Amino acid sequence: MATRWVVMAGMLGLALAGCQQSERPVREPTPLDLTTVGTIAGVVRFEGTVPAQAELQIGSSAECAALYDGPVLAGDVLVKDGKVQNALVYISKGLGDRVFAVPETPVVIDQRDCLFVPRVAAAQVDQPVRFLNSDMLAHNVHGVPTEARSWNFMLAVRGASRDATIEREEPAIEIKCDVHPWMKAYLGVFDHPYFAVTDADGRFSLSQVPPGDYTVTVWHERFGSSDTHATLAPKSAQNVTFFFRAE
Q1: 24 and 124 Cβ atoms separated by less than 8 Å
Q2: Does 93 map to a domain?
Q3: 3-class secondary structure, 37
Q4: Residue 26 lies in a domain
Q5: Which tens digit of pLDDT belongs to each residue from 171-214?
Q6: Pairing of β 5-12 and β 237-246
């Protein structure tokens, strides 16, 4: 019988064309009163028996297999002491029609040792996402969003890189290498800067959040997603804990 995941959330009080810059009207960022902003932070936890990571089948590529002495794990379930790494946490409702400046610094996703590194990343809409090949063999980068345009291009030699920009929000775009089908990554794209990927301690922090009532969402590639509510008073901090549980 397939395992079902129960997701709970709680609060503690405190195509290649898709890679081109789209022609979007320039929007002036909404002024942010830095004297009133606060922080939404917290942790993502797992309760119960932690499922095993998937084992990657890399034997079809002798070059990739030669890089490893034993089984290669996907990194799709990273839980230490009940704390979940690589969960994507973001504000999904409550920001209204605010407009935010788009960072010019690219988010970098590498292809290294026949894996995408990092496996989970996030960027803003129209922010450059730089794909890099650090391997001695050719890879491609195939993004398959459901909201934005797809992209697919080769990085044929070591050191090759290419930037993409994604023109629409989507919490988890799957990215793959068609040459090596076990290679996968996930990219969250948001129309604001209030997102984070949890670290090895399962922690996240969303800073400089204006006061307001928000829906905060967590997404994980194996465990699913869940929402919770956070009310942020001026110059305050709100702590949020998400729980994933095996049924």
Answers
A1: no
A2: yes
A3: coil
A4: no
A5: 999 999 999 999 999 999 999 999 999 999 999 999 999 999 99
A6: antiparallel
Beta-strand pair 151-155/83-85: unpaired
Q: Which domain holds residue 100?
A: 5-19+35-246
Nearest to 184 by CA among 11, 57, 90: 57
Phi, psi of 6 (to 5 degrees): -105, 125
Residue 97 forms part of a structural domain:
yes
**Sign of the dihedral through C-alpha 220, 222, 224, 229:** negative
> What pLDDT, in 10s, does the model give residues 80-89?
999 999 999 9
Contact 173, 109 (CB under 8 A): no
Residue 30 within any structural domain of the chain: no
**DSSP 3-state of 135:** coil
CA atoms within 13 A on the CB side of 230: 35
Count of the separate structural domains present in the chain? 1
Could you give the CA distance from residue 76 to residue 221 in angstroms, rounded to a whole number?
Answer: 7
Q: How many CB atoms lie within 10 A of CB 3?
A: 9
Q: Is 225 exposed, middle or buried (0-12, 13-18, 19+ CB in 10 A)?
A: middle
pTM given for the model: 0.90
Question: How distant, in Å, are the alpha carbons of 2, 128, 130, 227 from that of 19?
Answer: 37, 9, 10, 31
Instruction: Give the DSSP letter of residue 86.
Output: S
Looking at residue 137, the DSSP 8-state letter turns out to be: S
Domain at 130, CATH number? 2.60.40.420
